[in-house]
Amino acid sequence: MFLKRMPRPILFCVSVALCAAALAQQPEIADSRRNAIVRAIERAAPAVVSINVIVEQRPNPFGSDFWDLFALPVPRYRKVDSIGSGFIFDREGHILTNYHVVEGADYLDSVTLPDGRTLKVQLVGADKRTDLAVLKAEGSGFPYVELGDSSDLIIGEWVIAIGNPYGGLIRDPVPSVTVGVISATNRRVSPKVGDGERLYQNMIQTDAAINPGNSGGPLVNAKGQVIGVNTMIFSPSGGSIGLGFAIPINRARRVAEEIIRFGRRREPWPGFHVQDVAAMPEALRRVGPQSDSGCVVTEILKNSPAYQAGLRPGDVIVSVNGEPIRTAVEIDYAIWDLFIGDTATLTVYRDGKTMTISFPIIELTK
What we know:
CATH topology of the domain at 268-363: Pdz3 Domain
Helix content: 10-25%
Strand content: 25-35%
CATH class of the domain at 268-363: Mainly Beta
């Protein structure tokens, strides 16, 4: 009613002003849509690949024994399947993924890029204990993603999980993205996960949804840098409930460098064995280590760097490089997380005194 009583010149000016304000808001809305998360995805997603493997299967209903009776080869056929994700991290076409993504493959066939290209690949090497593997794509001109720094993470900061969940069912090379936050860092997962053969320690926890097929894909920060390798979830149903875990990229980078240089992860060798103090018989504890936690050295080789540095049987190790040690599994992880040439610094109890012993990590030779 107020506008209707306005003089026409004034009403015209008000209309023009409102239209101008509405037009001015259009770029602001467009800019707000292209936020940091969107830009990070645009930087990282082109380098995320779907890993295609060949699995040989036996379709006959009789089993191999039936064909053995006739000295005939067992009928087999090849099936190309997509079982996981990975990402190209350098201009040479090296691809980082999980060991368990390629573990069940009879042959590695290829990877598919989001732009639809399919590239032949070869396995460079893999490390079962850290659950990491490196592939190399044939060709050149690859998109690749920048690796970040997983030692500089903030609990609560935005992260993006990128991968190809259910890649065998969704026939589309464009990866899926989910967004969440870093829920925790340095998570120590029970050795029961992975049957003690894989060391899921000091993991990044996120509530970004990680689903089957996401394994091996990147966990990306708001800068578009990879800060972790999506690896596993805790779930009673098999689907995401917001408990996802990623291997920190600083560890993954060093494992990848080892694999590229040597074709394998060189095995660090401490030269001693330990037993949990808590697991020792009470009689031995009364005359032995005066500690309720840690690991007691039970055996040590005299030619090992640890012995030469002063470690002796009966010493109780309570920390490695500042990380508390409560069980033998934690000693195993702490040593395996080091690389050839690194220094291990142990805090030990001996005869009621605290000592520090440092020695270099060398390679286990067969």
